[in-house]
Each structure stands twice: as C-alpha cells, then as structure tokens.
C-alpha cells in the first residue's frame, strides 16, 4: 500500500489497504468470545447495521477504489474473482475463491492464469454475470477519468502499459481473453505467482457494459454482492445499502443485516463516544476506520463492559526510520548502523500510545506468517537503546565527538510519523552523542518532500502497509531498484538498486507455492536489513469499539479490522 494513511486507503487500508494498518496474529475482542456482546450471542438475520466513520466512502466505483480483499464496505456490493478468507487471525490472511471456482490455474511459469466462474451468478437486476463483464470492468479501470485503483494491472498485463480504457480504445485488452461466458484468461508480461491476491482487488468486479455510466457509475454501481446501493449522498458521506434479492449467497459473506447504513464525516472522538454510549441505533453500530486513542483506551480499559466491546486487530504495517544514502553523513553505513543501535523503541512505543497500541519491530516485514516473517535483530538496541555501541561506530566513522543531523517528520497527529515519535527519537539519540534537529512539515508538504528523489531528506520518518498479506508488495516497492521513480512519487527511499536483490524478487515472484515464497521473502528481508537503509520501529495495533448489539465479530490478519460482512445485529 502506498505510503499514505492506511485508514484512508483500506482500508488500507489499504488496504486497504489497507491499509493499514500492524504485528502478531489478530484476534477477536479481548475478554469476550468472537460471537460478540449481548445476552443471545447467536447471530440472526435482520436489523440495520450502522457504520460510523471519519472518512467518507468516496469514489464508490470498483475501478477507482484502492482496496485489497474486496475492501470492507465495498465487499458488500462488489464481488471479485477471489477474496480474503473471512476468518479470525492468521486464517484470514489466506486468499480464497469468490466469483471463481478456485483461486486460479497458472501455466508452468505463472505467466498465464485461467479462471472459471461459478454457475448461476447474477446481478441485482437478475441478469447473469459473465466473464466478459469482468474483462470490461478491468478495462474501464484503465480510463484516466476513473483513476485511483491499484497500478498492478497496468504493470502486469501483457501490452497494457499504454492502454487508455474502453471509452477511448474500444478494442480492449488483448491480454484478457474470454473464450466463453464462464472462462477468463489473463496473459502477463512476467511470472506472478501472487496473481490470486491481485484478483481480490475491486478492479476485478464485473461491470455490465450496458449499465456503465462512466464517472456517474459510483452513484449506483450494479451489485454482484449481497447488498445494493439505494442511496449515495455527498460522494459517500452517506451510503445506504439494502439486500440484493438476486444474491444467491456465497462462501464468505454472511450478510446478516437487512440494511447497512454508512455515515461518514464524523469526528473520531464523536464516533468513539457514540459507540461507548451505545444508545438507540448506535447499539448496532461499528466503525471501520476509527481507532481508540491512548486516552480513550485508558478510559475504556477501566470499564469491563466497554472493554468487552473492543476488537483488537493487526494489519501488515510497519513504521520506520528511512535513510537517504545519497545525503551525508548517511552515505556512511556505520552512521546508519549507529543510529540503529541508538534507537530506544520503548520510548517510541510510549509516544505511539503505549504497548496496547504498538508493538516493537526489528524486522521490516510485519511479524505475521503470511509475510514470511523471520525473526532477526541485526543491530540489537535492547529495550532502551545501545548508546555505547552507537558511540563506538560513530568514532569509527570519524565522528568521535558525535554529530548533528536533521529528522524530517509530519506535523499530523497520527502517532506514526508525528512530533511525538520524532521527539522520542531525538531524546534517545542524544544519549549517543547525536544531536537531532526536528523539521516538522504539514502532511501534504511532508509527503511531497519524502517521495521525490529531488527533495528527499537524509533522515525521516516513514511507514508502509501491504496491498495484500505477502512479502512481495511489502519489500518490492521499497527495495527493488527497478521501482525507483525519478520524476514522480518514489517509494524506494534508500535508492537501493542491488542486482542480487532484484534477481531474488523476480525468482520469488515465479513461485505459486505461497508458503515457499513466504520463506524466501523472510530471508530476503534479513539480507536487506544488513544494509541498514531503514530502522524498523513498531507495528501498530488496532483497538476499535463496537455497539452492544453487535455479534459475530471477525477480525483477520488481512485487514486488522472488524469484517462487516460477518456482523449480525440481532
């Protein structure tokens, strides 16, 4: 997931991506079984689920959404070839069939993937869903006026780099074949063993060409899922969903409520207050984008009733220090190593809200099996930093009296790249003789500065969330030299272009055995760590309240947040 807010993306996410969204196995609510609160924990059909969010569900068009696993609210309306497994914890990080009969059938070198649609699939109007509709849905995502989705299809599909969508080029994409109404074949320009993960993106949603209204499609996209859109006000500020009578059920979505009422644009403190009070319609309310902050969590933790209504989740996400080795003194590996030793992760975690909201990280990959997590700590700083080792390395680097450096961060109060984290690092590095000057920037200026090769500082705070639970979309954008962007948004902040790293990324991408691939991603993470181009700091933990009538709480390691496709309110 691109290095913007994981909540805004997935959510990502991210996705949503996001994205984003986080450490160990996710779990259901603390001090409460995963069925949820209430006297009768058995989930029943009926009622209205209210979703209280800060961010509006904008661009509600499958072409424009940047989501993985189908998203959360979008997944109620849009089905895709594959989707995420709707289970708690690590089991939820697996990809499973959705519209398709399986997760895809690759050729020998994973450059051709074939899918067969299940029988009897229908849209909300009762018309059949065909493979041509999925092809068309993907093609329209290439239209410039419908931009916003993930970039992988343009990069992966053979001959797709310059395609401008079906409104300008009616010939369509030759890389996608539909030999019959239930078969779709994708031709890739390089091996991609993780194509089943990509097929969870909303761009793989079927769109009937006859019903396509271009940029207005988001007002009433044609549903292939359990709910249809009956109201979309102010670009997703209020979205009302009702049952799709032609949805015949599927293996993943429970779809218990009769209606889902999404209300956005709310202040985060108001959301948490309403969920805590749990009165009226808010008894059957959840949030998909608002965490409990440190102060709120302390208050909730002191109330057993509220604590029983907190869902805890983890998402593949890492907060870290980034170095630009083209800027002195960070061109010297010993300086970067010294800073790695000097970091006090305990103080950083306290600045991020405490151990309930952040977990220490010494690996760039999140500590989840699906990413290939392999424990390592090449520059052990202990709990409070190793100032002595840092001073020793600085002396070897020609700085016996220490040095003065500038740390760039965002002024946004996000507890990730914000002043609190920067100040904690400033205090820790001072013990090692490193004077840190802080450069705080407004969020837009911060992102523009760190994502441009021309302006990237030498020492700054960053974060990254995965587009799906695997090491590939985590390591490649940050460390693959071929992904360095000289005249646009660049995410390879260390400007690493190592042939052995690039070659290993290609080799892993050929693997369709995802367990074998995960092990290789973990080994590559350790190899790259030796270059000291980043200092992993922590993985966030999501703590979110839900209403007292909410049942069947499922939180997977794919999203780290409550899955509203599983929730019941009766």
TrEMBL record:
**Molecular functions per Gene Ontology:** peptide transmembrane transporter activity
For this UniProt record, give its keywords in alphabetical order, as a comma-separated list: Signal
What PROSITE patterns does the database record attribute to this sequence?
A: PROKAR_LIPOPROTEIN (PS51257)
Keyword Signal attached: yes
Instruction: Show which residues constitute the signal peptide.
Output: 1-26
Q: Quick one: a GO cellular component term?
A: ATP-binding cassette (ABC) transporter complex
| InterPro entries the record matches | Peptide/Ni-bd (IPR030678), SBP_5 (IPR039424), SBP_5_dom (IPR000914)
What Pfam families does the entry give? SBP_bac_5
The Solute-binding protein family domain covers 94-482
A GO biological-process term: peptide transport
Which PANTHER family does this chain map to?
ABC TRANSPORTER SUBSTRATE-BINDING PROTEIN (PTHR30290:SF83), PERIPLASMIC BINDING COMPONENT OF ABC TRANSPORTER (PTHR30290)
From the Swiss-Prot or TrEMBL record, give the protein name: ABC transporter substrate-binding protein
Source organism per entry reads: Streptomyces bauhiniae
Q: What is the lineage of its organism?
A: Bacteria, Bacillati, Actinomycetota, Actinomycetes, Kitasatosporales
């Amino acid at each position: 997931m691109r290095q913007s807010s994981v909540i805004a993306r997935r959510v990502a996410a991210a996705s949503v991506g996001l994205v984003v969204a986080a450490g160990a196995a996710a779990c259901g609510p603390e001090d409460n079984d995963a069925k949820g609160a209430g006297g009768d924990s058995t989930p029943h059909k009926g009622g209205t689920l209210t979703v209280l969010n800060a961010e509006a569900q904008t661009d509600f068009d499958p072409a424009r959404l940047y989501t993985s696993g189908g998203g959360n609210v979008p997944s109620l309306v849009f089905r895709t070839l594959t989707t995420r497994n709707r289970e708690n914890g690590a089991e939820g990080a697996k990809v499973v069939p959705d519209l398709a009969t399986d997760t895809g059938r690759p050729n020998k070198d994973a450059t051709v993937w074939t899918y067969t649609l299940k029988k009897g699939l229908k849209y909300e109007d009762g018309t059949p869903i065909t493979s041509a509709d999925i092809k068309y849905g993907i093609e329209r995502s290439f239209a410039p006026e419908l931009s916003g989705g993930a970039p992988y299809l343009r990069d992966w599909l053979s001959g797709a780099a310059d395609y401008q969508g079906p409104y300008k080029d009616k010939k369509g994409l030759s890389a996608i074949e539909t030999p019959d109404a239930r078969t779709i074949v994708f031709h890739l320009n390089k091996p991609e063993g993780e194509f089943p993960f990509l097929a969870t993106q909303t761009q793989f949603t079927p769109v009937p060409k006859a019903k396509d209204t271009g940029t207005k499609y988001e007002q009433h996209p044609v549903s292939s899922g359990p709910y249809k859109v009956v109201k979309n006000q102010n670009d997703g500020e209020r979205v009302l969903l009702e049952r799709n009578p032609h949805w015949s059920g599927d293996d993943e979505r429970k779809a218990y409520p009769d209606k889902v009422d999404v209300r956005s644009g709310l202040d985060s403190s108001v959301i948490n207050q309403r969920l805590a009070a749990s009165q009226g319609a808010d008894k059957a309310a959840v949030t998909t984008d608002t965490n409990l902050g440190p102060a709120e969590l302390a208050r909730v933790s002191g109330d057993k009733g509220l604590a029983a209504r907190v869902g805890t989740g983890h998402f593949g996400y890492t907060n870290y220090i980034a170095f630009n080795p083209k800027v002195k003194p960070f061109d010297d590996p010993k300086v970067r190593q010294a800073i790695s030793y000097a970091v006090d992760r305990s103080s950083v975690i306290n600045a991020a809200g405490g151990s309930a909201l952040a977990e220490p990280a010494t690996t760039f990959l999140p500590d989840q099996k699906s990413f290939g997590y392999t424990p390592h700590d090449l520059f052990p700083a202990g709990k409070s930093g190793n100032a002595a080792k840092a001073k020793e390395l600085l002396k070897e680097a020609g700085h016996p009296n220490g040095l003065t450096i500038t740390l760039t961060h965002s002024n946004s109060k996000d507890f990730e790249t914000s002043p609190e984290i920067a100040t904690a690092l400033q205090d820790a590095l001072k013990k090692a003789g490193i004077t840190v000057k802080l450069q705080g920037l407004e969020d837009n200026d911060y992102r523009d500065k760190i994502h441009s090769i021309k302006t990237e500082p030498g020492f700054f705070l960053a974060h990254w969330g995965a587009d799906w639970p695997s090491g590939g979309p985590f390591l490649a954008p940050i460390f693959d030299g071929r992904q360095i962007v000289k005249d646009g948004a660049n995410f390879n902040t260390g400007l690493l272009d190592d042939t052995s790293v690039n070659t290993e990324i290609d080799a892993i991408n050929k693997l369709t055995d995802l367990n074998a691939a995960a092990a290789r991603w973990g080994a590559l993470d350790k190899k790259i760590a030796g270059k000291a181009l980043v200092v992993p700091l922590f993985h966030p933990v999501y703590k979110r309240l839900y209403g007292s009538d909410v049942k069947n709480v499922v939180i997977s390691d794919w999203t780290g947040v409550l899955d509203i496709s599983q929730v019941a309110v009766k």
